[in-house]
# Entry
Amino acid sequence: ILRQVAAKNRGISCDYYPVLRLGDGNITWGPPTRNITSGFKITSDFFRVTCKARRGRLMYDRVHAGVALTQDRSERPEVPLDEGFGGLGVAILGFDSMSRMSWLRRLPKTRAYFHDVLGAIELEHHNIVGDGTTAVMLPMLTGKFEWELPECRRNFPNATTMDDFPFLWHDFKKAGYLTSWSNAAPFTAPFNYRMLGFEHQPTDFYTRPFYLAAHNLTQKDEPFCMGSQSQSQVWLNYFRDIFVMYKEKRKFLLHFLVEMSHDDNNLITMMDDDIKRLVHFLYTGGYLNNTLLILMGDHGARYSEVRSTWSGKMEERLPYMSFLFPKWFERKFPEAMKHFRANRKRLTTPFDMHETFRDFLQFGGIGSGDLDQRGISLFKEIPSNRTCSHAGIAPHWCSCLSWEAVSPADPGATKAMQTTIQTINRFTSGYRPRCALLSITNVTSLTKLQTNRDVLKFTQADSDGGISRLDFNSSNESGYVLYQLTFGTSPGGGEFEVTVTNDVLRQHFSLNETDISRINKFGNNSACILKEAKQIRQYCYCKNNIHHDI
# Structure
């Protein structure tokens, strides 16, 4: 309590309530500690403090985040890692919807300090493998696509929580690392919005209970504030405090911020000084002597006006990814770091990140990467002739392909448009009483894949809507042509980008859901089905909105 406040309000008293997790969906308050004073030692990472004046008038009621010093964390035994990189830690700060180019434009001070002064290594051709944050996090943390893992989506038969998924943090914890998963948007978090999340707390530091509690207490007219601090500063401070409290411990930390860049990249400009200041604090304080620090975006902007342009399309597929190693690491492992630097200009994906992190626990060697492996550690040299097909990137998401414009009158293009709208309407057919039938109103872009040959050659497809592998050099006689469309729909003003596949031999047009991108915001347009069918929210325009629009 500030002295000047106590002087004006004699008899003021404050109580401390730990935040207790009740699964992934709820929290409660633990037993209170009454009349706390300055210097009180916190017993939990997240807690509520209430202060009352002498006559019981409530003067203060906030939830706070700190890092408690616990025996389990501080005394955790560390497993010898002779086959890894000597127990080097990994700490990741991720920012939603930040492409590499947007990072350069909007966080110039952070980038200049991280890259130019400290010598961080940026990946210049880092390509996403699917739509949205979950399609980045699962490949990076488990090495698998969503459909390769057990069913975990809400309201789906036999769905389970994600506790037993092969997340890397389980392996790091077994090796004695302190682990953390932090997402500052509890209601749209990648493992909770469409999915069932976790029954048991997945990591040592887990901020979901804090953000659920903060949502209940934060003033709704202060969307970016938590009391006298910005939400982004609270998020950065918690990351910092883990280092301060457990400086010498191995760490595997992944902290992800949504609010300052998801809807509008311009807002994150306000964080430039704060992020730079945090990196400077960690570096000059010696906190990164045993830790690799990664700054990253999950993908580029998906819904901004720029997204409808060619450059916006490319930016969505090419997020920011940058690594700062301790100076001693490159001296100790020069060959591995030579390959890492060479890979700056090679095609990389979240699957490669997964393999790289695995090397910290058990080193897989150096040399040249195997093109038959979907993921290649960045400590191996990625072959320069690697293609999207090698890397598990569907044509819809591949930034390396060359497309040529075609006329809407082209018979193939006409059929592609018909297939597209039929497919989208089929997704909502089970909810037709609530979801309107959509039609295409305008086509703003229509292209066909242009390669050295007239058609792509099909080599492998996933049976349940996964990656189609397309080989540019196969002698297979079964040809495939891809059409990419950008268009608007009515009612509701939806904007989409899709990639349709034509089996030339059979003249069969098909469209997987993984090849559809919603590229403008849909807000509450699908509110009528959100409780039971979040998976179709981008396609459903609720009929009850039509009357409001008139």
In short: The two ends are 55 Å apart (CA to CA). Residues 439 and 490 are 5 Å apart (CA to CA). Residues 411-427 form the longest helix (17 residues). The chain is about 25% helix and 20% strand.
